[in-house]
Each structure stands twice: as C-alpha cells, then as structure tokens.
Amino acid sequence: MIVPPNGHTAFIGPPSKPVEWLSYLYGKMPHPNSDLMQYGRYYEGDQQKLAFAQSRYKTAFSDVFEQWRDNFCGMIIDSANERMNVDSFRFPDHEGSEKVVREIWQRNSMDAFSSSVHLDAMIYGTSYVLVWADEAGQPTITPYSAEQMVVHYKTGSLTEIEAAALFIMDPWGRQISTLWTPEYVYEVSATTTDWEDGKKRRNPLGVVPVVPFQNRARLGHLATSDLHNILPIQDAINKTVTDALTASEFAAFPQRWVTGLEIVEDETGSPVEPFSVAVDKLLQAESETAKFGSFEAADLKNYVTLVSMLVQHMASISRLPLHYFLVNGSSSPSGESLISAEAGLVAKVRERMLHFGEAWERVIRLCFRVLKDSRMDAFTMETVWKDPEYRTEAQHVDALLKLHQLNVPEEFLWSSAGFSAAQISSFREMRKQDAKAAAEVQKLGPQPQTSAPGSPGVTTPKPPQGNSGNANRKIHETK
User: Fold this and answer.
1) Helix or strand or coil: residue 404?
2) Secondary structure element (H or E) that encloses residue 151, with its range
3) Backbone region of residue 216 per phi and psi (left: phi > 0; alpha: psi in -120 to 50; beta: other values)
4) Distance between CA atoms of 47 and 238, rounded to whole angstroms?
5) Is the dihedral of CA 474, 476, 477, 479 positive or negative?
6) Considering the entire predicted model, what is its pTM?
7) What is the DSSP letter of 311?
C-alpha cells in the first residue's frame, strides 16, 4: 500500500496545486479492505477460508480443507470476457485508416492486453488506459488497474476528465506518482520521497490522456463490479458445502450402539471402548440383556438440493446458462436450444461491448492526437467486435450465404464469418493475385478472329437456319 508522504490529508475546496491534486486523488484510491479489493479476492478464490465453518470443523479439518474452494466468481467473469474480442476499427470518412490503427494496436500488444482491460473492468467496476508518446513520438497504450489509477471528472460532465493520477511501486518498493491535467504533467520519481519535490512540465496533448473503462455505469453512480450481487450467494454456497463436509465426516455413516453391557474404565476412570469395529469384526457380548443396533446415516441430499437452488439463483443474477454450472448433471444443449439458453449471456456481452467500444474509440483518437493527426476528431469511428455468439459452422455459413443473396458486400460477410482485419486484408491481395493470374491464362489461350469476311483463312458463316421463311433464304442467296 502506498502511503502519502509528509502526512498529507484532505482539505476543503477544489485542488489548485499539484500536491493538493495528488492528495485528493489518493484519497479516492481503494484501501486493502475495500469492496473493490474484495472483488479481486473472490475472483481469484482467495476469499476468507472456512469463514462459516464450526469451531470443531476448523480444529479437525483446517489442515485438510484449508485450500478447499468452490468458487463460481471466476467463471462468471471469464464466461463474458472470453466472448469480448476487439477485431478492428472502422473509419467511414477516412479511407485507409484501418491499416494505421492496426499497426498501432499490434505494436502495443493490445490483442492480449485489451482482454485484461475488459477483465479488470468487470471485476473492479473500472479499469484505465493511458495514452502517451514514446521517445520516437509514437503513441503508446498502457493499461492500468483501478488499484493503481484514479480520475476526477469535470463538474457536470460524464466524459471530460479534469485530473488523473497514477500511484505505483517500482520493483524496489519505492513510490512513483504521476499527475495529469489538461495544462501540465507532474511527476514524482522513485528517488523523491516528498510530493512537493516533483517535476512539472507542460502537457503537449492539451487533454488528460487517460480513458476509464466503466462497467455497468449508472448516471450519477459509480461503476459496479459484476460480482456485486454474487458475493452473498457465493458465501451461502460455501457455508452449505462446508456443512455437508462436516456432516459427511461425523454423520454420513451408521453409528452403532449397544445396551446392557458393563462399562469398563481404565486407571484414570475413563471409559474403555469395548469393541474395535471393522468390516471383518463380529460384535458379541456374554450378557443376555445386551442389545445391539445402529442409527441411520445422515442424508446429504438435502445439502445437494440447497446448493442447486443457490446455484440457480446465481445463474439468474449473472445471466449465465444453467449448463455452465452443470446443475443436476444436465448435459449441454445444442442447436436452437443452445442459442436460446445463451441469449441472456450474449445480450449481457453486447451491452458491455457498447460501453467498452466507446472507450476504445477514445483511446484511438488519443493516439492520433499524439501523432498530431486530424483523425483525432474522427467521431464517426466504430469499434468492430468479433461475434460473441457461438454457433455451429453449418448454421453460420448458411446464414452468410443467405445474406450474400441480398447483395451484402463480401467484406462484411468475411468479417461476420469471424475473419480478422489482417486476414481480410490478405484476402484482398489474394483476389488481386487471382485476377492477375486469370488474365495471364487468358492471354495464353486461343484468341478470337478479327479479320474481315472473305479474307484468306476466314470461314463465311452459314446462313441462318430454322423456319425463317423462303424470303430470308432468297435474300441471303442473292448476296
């Protein structure tokens, strides 16, 4: 955890100095016990172990089940994140821009890091992307977690950022803090322990180069994690399964009893167990009044029923199909039933794509701002996502063929088929090569005759055949 140097505390009124901004923004950072940090622990399955276990259970099985977990939080996040993949960016008013953006995207390894941005946004509610220039003046795209960065919006605006701050530690545990405003950048290096000793320089971009990715953002409310309503149900599942494990140890097998038997005690006065029970052992007693019996074993089906009900509630809230949870051992659906079962999940993913896509467009416009390119105002740009819906290959191709019959452009069909922008670009080059090869083959084939009729080597065509009448034949014969 980063601690503000020199005991900086909150103040009254809007910040006006870099140190005041750093102090204010640091106060908005999540602390170790905040809900935001708890979401991260639940996603990884590192929430408190044996939180609902009885004291006897903790004593007897803490070493055995200390690492036990039955965590669905990771699956709920991953099932949506694995369907969100940025394919390319479309520029209706700027031809050729797709290639430039693809080069920037690939140079910053965003094919991989974009997934991390979506993942952290759904876990914590918000993630961030910083756009800046490297030593060569080329745009760099750097993702940051909500554990490291925080922003402040201008009053009354949902998109304009007044200030952003980054608080990170270097590998040697030294604090590095950076503040961005539209006017300046204020950096406190690792070799400086006081925020007052930072270096201030002009911001060449004129805007705060940070883009927040907000998950489930409401008007006037903070962004929310996808796990916000899941944690109580996850805790209830853990508690129920823990009880089932306890019952399986102490009451899941028949307990034997005997009456009319004299109790033997040892030297300390403690009862001595009269029998060593085993599969190959026979219980017997000399007393005629001795009677043997056993209690019924505990039925664990009640726990299974309760866990199944809780899982169904979790599936409803998270909008995940039941076959993801394997409820009651049901098999996965197929065909139309699969599309119907995953409709809620696909709709949830498309809603995330709407907001995340808008954020990625702001990131690309910032990249063009770094390059001092007029396309930094390309507001007609669109983020192109890969299809989040899983379908069989036959169904997908059949649907595309029907769209082709409606004269839908081939490039759109290629994109809908799941081909990437790089593959589509190579398709265009392949089509050009195919056309060029076809032209070469045409030149090698027999060429049509262009000489006038009656010339040597030219055959006069036969008169027209059919029931054209005698008049037509006579006209032809007189020529």
Assistant:
1) helix
2) strand 149-153
3) left
4) 11
5) positive
6) 0.75
7) H
